[in-house]
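Entry for the shared binder. Reason: the reviewer on the internal report wants the predicted structure included alongside the sequence.
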Amino acid sequence: MSILILAATAALNLQAAPAAPLDLIIPELPGTSGDPTCGGNAALAAQAFCVATTQAAMQGVADQYNAAFATQGWLAASGEDNLTVYVRRKDGGGCAAFQLLAFADPNRPVAPGAPGYFAFATIPGDICANSPAPAAPQ
């Protein structure tokens, strides 16, 4: 069974704003399960869809998600540490985007069998929109 995200709000470090529907299928992978609490992080759970796995499995799960998103036309456009931004061109112009955040509970010890989480959230607006030209010096 796969999960289809139709709409979500912005995730970490972005202003909350209504997001356009996002055509994204998040596959249900072996060893993962949906976590409506986002590892007990209520603020994140209000903004994202979360999946739990073990810390030992996180890299393999991330690789599988990346491959699944690529088959749907999503490009990993940016990333740092545990955050990846995926972008896809819209038919009418511009881009849709979402972000994938990998994290663990900071209050629990790091261990292969300890829970690890992935949060998926829409990035509102058009991240490919043309930025206004800088004003000419006078």
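Summary line for the report: Residues 1-20 have pLDDT under 50 and may be disordered.
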